[in-house]
Amino acid sequence: MSPRTPTGAAVLQPGVTQAITEAVLDELAEHGYARLSMEAVAKRAGVGKSALYRRWPSKQEMAISVISEFSVARTPAADTGSLRGDLRETVDALMAWLTHPRFSRILPDLVAEMGRNPELGDIVKTMIGEPRRERAAAVFQRAVERGELRADTDLEIALDLFAAAIYWRLTVRAAEAEPDYVDKLTDTILRGIGA
């Protein structure tokens, strides 16, 4: 005899969670954070609001959880054996993240909302910014250990160099990245940090 799920137990079905996740991303891309609602997400996902509240207690926690999972998963733990190879993979992944069809519309809105809502900014920093930076920092730390970078290399500035350049070009300037942009940027960063 197989065990029976107790009556009333909250069973979080992966298929439902995936449908909700997709609905959150779609709603954020189409309407932005300020207009995001639990009702709209539930309707788009084809579930009741209770399915959302079983997973997250608020709109903010739902949105940040989904964006965090989406974003951190797209940060490679590149370890090719060389700084250039690792940096190239990291820059390529950052480009893919920032040009993702939905996320390229979500990020500018989220950044604007963070300017209006410092609490949201702190949460985004903790749940998205810091985990992504930690993974990218490992690329530079391994390069120091291999002797490819000086031990006194300013890793904070090195991290800012590639992220800022790509964000500025794609999001602020809305400029295209030519086919060799990632290679050019990788080589420029390597020269800039003294690799």
Helix and strand content put the structural class at mainly alpha
The counted number of beta strands is 0
Mean pLDDT: 88
CATH superfamily of the largest domain: Tetracycline Repressor, domain 2
**CATH structural fold name of the largest domain:** Tetracycline Repressor, domain 2
- Percent strand equals under 5%
The rough form would be described as elongated
Q: State the oligomer.
A: single chain
- Please tell me the total number of domains: 2
Run of helices and strands: HHHHHHHHH
Assigned CATH class of the largest domain: Mainly Alpha
Helix content: 55-70%
Number of helices: 9
Radius of gyration: 20 Å
Low-confidence stretches: 1-9
- Tell me the CATH architecture of the largest domain: Orthogonal Bundle
User: Distance between termini?
Assistant: 64 Å
Largest sheet: none
